[in-house]
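Ligand-bound model needed. FE2/S2 (inorganic) cluster.
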Amino acid sequence: MSALQAELAHLLSHEARLLDESRFAEWIDLYTPDCLYWMPAWREDGTLTQDPDTELSMIFYRGRRNLEDRVKRLNSGHSVASNAMTRVTHMVTNVILDEDDNATARTRAAFLVNVYDARTSLTHNFFGSYRHAFRRDGEAWKISEKIIHLQNEVIPTMLDIYSI
Amino acid sequence: MTRFALKDLIDDRPEDGVFRINRAMFRDEELFNLEMRHIFEGGWVFVGLATQAENPHDYFTTFIGRVPVIVSRDGEGTLRCFVNACPHKGVRLVQKPCGSARMHVCPYHSWTFDSAGANRNIKWQKRGCYGAGFDQENHDLAAVAQFGEYRGFLFASLNADVPSLEDYLGEARALLDLVADKSPEGVELVPGRVRFTYRANWKMQLENCSDQYHFTSTHPSYIRILEQRAKEKSDDVVEASLGASDFWQEGAKGVTGGTFSFDHGHVLNWGAMGVSAASPDFERAEEIAGRLGEPRRNWIFNMRNLTIFPNLQIADNASSQMRVIRPLGPNLTEMQTWCIAPRGESAEARRFRIRQYEDFFNPTGMATPDDTVCYEEAQTGMAEQERGWLQGHARGFTATQDGGNPFSDMLGMTPARNVVADAQLCDESLFQSYYKAWAERMAEVVQ
Ligand code: FES
Ligand SMILES: [Fe+2]
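Prediction:
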């Protein structure tokens, strides 16, 4: 494994940890201001939507500002769906470094998020793959894209950004 | 006979100013099975849009109640609807949600059917030593008892003894027209279907779509974000159509909307919204007015939540959504949802519509999760208890008028009942229409 691959795999683990621990301000800090955050939807023919301008996504944001809004809602105390202290654990693995130069890099990885919903005492999971793009920011890397392919498409009641 | 008496489930005494629903309606397993048999499998239900099987031999699969069905366009271009189960041993013939095929071959013993549902081959039939009885049987796929289309909306019934589709939809057809007439080319589904389940009764979704009362209470976290976005006008975030209107706000003045109720359980709740650039339909405002006249055009820009009983909802508010309700159990419901859009709109309008949609309607968005969690919390409260009657179907009782009003007159439409509302009325009497239809369909088993 190259040093860069190890460094980016570590960053993915770090992102997962921040979500597991509800450290959303630090999580948002990992992203570039113009970041893409995208989870496509499934077409009825069993393929994922590919063009977010002509097809539906489950989540599509361009701009970190949208993630800030999501976090604001989570912390607002005014969303019954967000008040129930959902506990999550991310597993991120099979990290592959796809492309890199000095300034940018791309990875693919597999994820499994186990979710315990304290409101209902139910456990379920979400799984699929991540495609991240990174941009160098001084010594550090920032996430400029996160594309989430969620395999289990039927959402049990709800899914928020901390569960993927 | 069942153990249910109508008066224990629906307390309908207009002379005493009472309309109440019992919690048992939402939780009872036996009642649920009767609903499947008599409501979903006993009358008209929505199955899909004609555009979902656009070309000859295209098909899609769905369910009518518990029964799997295929909607298929045959080689001549005629849409047909069959039970998606092989006559041989009942195997579900087509497993895919959609596709295109001239022939469907059963995976179990290879009986083969064409896109018109006709049996085209029984493997090794001649050497099968079949008795005369078998030869006399029809081996085609079973066509549903009734199947019809209205403006591209497809409906089917497993029961032959139903009113014509035209009569079933009745005056609510004018409201489907408003959806279909957004474009001279009609409407289509944006690719990408979002499905979710919730652990509560299907009637929670039925009611919530027409529940104006919950909006400011359930969605303040979303509303605050809209308010902030309206102030900042950032290019990073999508402009919200609801942010550009005030019909839902506590302090809004005058008539802000209202409700219409129709025979057979269809309802609309609506809110006044202007012809605004915050709607993706704005680019067509002139064209629509020229084609349909200004009153209809203005109606197209109003917030409209339409339910065609029992399983179709079209919400035209934060964006435009088509929902299909599929009950799976008294405590479990599956929702299939799509963005429904006028054909031929500009790329920019389409993109705007999709962005508005995702944030509000998706179970991964900022509004719908707060609704569905409330359904589940309501389901918990539906447990059997001393005070069985709910108090949630009472608002608007004294505001309800028979027939139409100047707003429905604009559409040449005569509903059974209407309410004209200010911002704080939030009619609940329209739910009566659901339960009157419920009682009609269940009349055989619940008296
Ligand atoms: S079940 Fe279909 S061919 Fe036997
Ligand atoms: Fe809602």
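Chain A has three helices and seven strands.
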